[in-house]
Amino acid sequence: MENIIEQVEAWLIPAGFAVAMSGGWALGRLWGRRFSGETGEDPGTKFIDASTALLGLLLAFTFAIALGRYDQRRLAVVAESNAIGDFYTCASLLQEPFRSRLQDVIRDYAQEQLDTPHETLIGADEKRATQQSREKFARMTDITNEAIAAGTPIALSLTTDLNNVTSSNASRLAVYQERLPWSIVFLLFLASVVPAFLVGEKQSASQKVHASGTISFIVLVTLVVFVILDLNQPHSGIIKVSQDSLARAIQSMSK
Question: Is 55 exposed, middle or buried (0-12, 13-18, 19+ CB in 10 A)?
Fold first, then answer.
């Protein structure tokens, strides 16, 4: 189910929310005609307040989750950029020919990560990019082994920085696999439709239709849901993680 939600354009699901909320409000108006003309305090208003408060709580909860995962992805890119830069600096301390060979591979790897970031790829493209990264890792490991076998005095630092590059890459790919559970999206859908239904019922019973307030409520909820789901789709969403830190790291790798 998470894969289905990810493959659908981010704006389509909020549009479905808007249609469902509008339909719920219209259905509530039809249902509320049974109570048209009744006077006195309506205890049903308490359910409207409770359901609206629950909707606000769920929106805040899911927005916090989506924004938190966006921050994790951003920090993962920075961590990998720093790891690549540290490894390149460490490689500059090697003797030739290991220094040039290793720096060239590191530079090519960083440029490849910038040009074809794995988080924007799906399916066959993602597998191909992963295979290319593994080949670069293998070449960096081979050159590192050769330098260590030749007796380089920075063997420990070189090995540590190589491990940091591979670990940071794995961590970045892992955080891009995290998704908002579909059950929360479905619960958010129900929590959006129910208040719209109750509001429509109340307006019909009181014979007072607040079109501007109803439309504003539906539009605001739809926009918040759109941002939440867009943050939940790092592969195809509008809100992307900046790759500037990786670009700066590449610029610092002078040939």
Answer: buried
